[in-house]
Design goal:
86 residues; alpha+beta
Length: 86
C-alpha cells in the first residue's frame, strides 16, 4: 500500500537538512581563512536534539516544515558529507 504522506516527509526532511547545512556554510564562510600550515586537532562530536519527527496526517498540497538542530559539541570542525532521508 502506498503511503501518500511519505514523499512529503522525505522532501521536508531533505529541505530542513539543506537549510541547516546552507546556514552553517554561510556562517563558516564569514570566518577568516584558516591557517593551512597547521592540522586541526581534537574530535568533532555531532549532537542532534531530535533525530526524527512524525508529521502525523498531512493532506495533499499541505506544506509542512520541521527544523532539526545539528550542533558540533566537539573541539574540531564537523564535516557533514552525506545526508539521507528515510
Amino acid at each position: 500500500m502506498n503511503d501518500p504522506i511519505r514523499p512529503l516527509r522525505r522532501t521536508s526532511l531533505c529541505t530542513a537538512f539543506l537549510v541547516i547545512i546552507a546556514g552553517a556554510l554561510g556562517a563558516r564562510a564569514q570566518d577568516p581563512a584558516p591557517d593551512v600550515t597547521t592540522t586541526p586537532t581534537g574530535t568533532p562530536r555531532m549532537s542532534i536534539e531530535e533525530s526524527d519527527h512524525n508529521y502525523g496526517r498531512i493532506l495533499k498540497g499541505d506544506v509542512v516544515e520541521h527544523l532539526f538542530i545539528v550542533r558540533n559539541d566537539g573541539d574540531a570542525p564537523l564535516l557533514i558529507e552525506k545526508v539521507q532521508a528515510t
